[in-house]
Amino acid sequence: MAGATVAVDTNSDGTLVIRPHGSLDVDDAVDLRRTVVRAIRHDRPLRLVIDLREVHRLDPINVGTFAAACNLGDDQCVAVFLDHPSTTIANQLVTAGIPAHRLRHIGTGHD
Q: Is the pLDDT of residue 111 over 70?
């Protein structure tokens, strides 16, 4: 990813956690989408958490990736949550149609 990196870990309870860092822009879209789709379709954890604590900026393409991840997760029986978004990013996500119950710990990321 050009302006960002992504770490993927599995918690002891089986939750898969994707942790992007930095600014997620159009140059990051393909790699981020592949990471998220692979997690949902191939790894198929019971829960997928996308930890946005270290995300400084999120462009519309990647907002769409997260919205699609929630829908794909529903189709694949994977609960998808977006944790620690800044207030600004949380507003972007809700405006894009991501249900508020998917967002947890709002305001604990970068603002």
A: no
Query: Are the C-beta atoms of 20 and 5 separated by less than 8 Å?
Result: yes
Region 55-73 average pLDDT: 96
Q: What is the pTM of this model?
A: 0.92
Domain residue spans of the chain: 4-104
In this structure, which topology does domain 4-104 adopt according to CATH? Transcription Regulator spoIIAA (3.30.750)
Report the pLDDT averaged over residues 22-41.
Answer: 95
Q: 8 pairs with which residues across the strands?
A: 18
Sign of CA dihedral 94, 100, 104, 105: positive
Kind and range of the H or E element at 37?
A: helix 29-38
In 3-95 the beta strands, taken as DSSP E runs, fall at: 4-10, 16-24, 47-51, 55-58, 79-83
The one-letter amino acid at 47: R
- Among residues 74, 58, 70, 56, the alpha carbon closest in space to that of 100 is found at 70
